[in-house]
Amino acid sequence: MKILASSDIHSPKWTGKFLASLKRKMAGKEYDLFILAGDLAERGGYKHLYPIHEELKNSTCVAVFGNEDFSSFRDKYKKEYPSFFWLDDSSKVFQVGPKRVLVVGSEGVLQRPTRFQRLLGVDEKYFKKRLERIDELLCEEADFKILVTHYASCLETVIGERESIYPYLGYPLVEKVRCAPNIAIHGHAHFARRTFYFNGKTKVYNVALPANQDVVEIDVSLDDEGKAER
Question: What is the model's pTM?
Fold first, then answer.
């Protein structure tokens, strides 16, 4: 299974870079799944997602929300761009050949809420509840499991950022859940120098566009070839 993934496009800020990279990667190739791991538009400007949606609307694309995809606009994202599979503390199973591929999507979990989040009533209990939900979803039956979050799902893939802000970049999800995913994809850490980590169970990819300067290609072996079906 071939996947193309990215995040932190902050459209319109890096739309041109994203589309140029996407077209270069897609030239002469086919991909089973496209993943957008949050912060797709700058400060909730969902209208700016239009050119990205136009490029991907005929593909199988999973998207999650980031902190810049403001919660007050998320219904508008879903309404304006219905061809994307929007996963918001939810899951979707894709049939890839004979294999059932489970994708669990969420904004993710932080070790510590930001000051702005606290002003909005988000506290540690909020993230604990979300962690429990992700844990539950990952234990659904499937042949292959993918976790997609905006916030980092391990701290090894934020290395390069200031250590003082690690608690606001993510949480070691892949170490804490009962049913470890095969791969985990996240964004949020723009200045990470390490964008891949394998802990022995889960391969973790930080696909933030500013960190990679490119759309990230992930090649997954499922034993049997097949196109992802909706």
Answer: 0.94
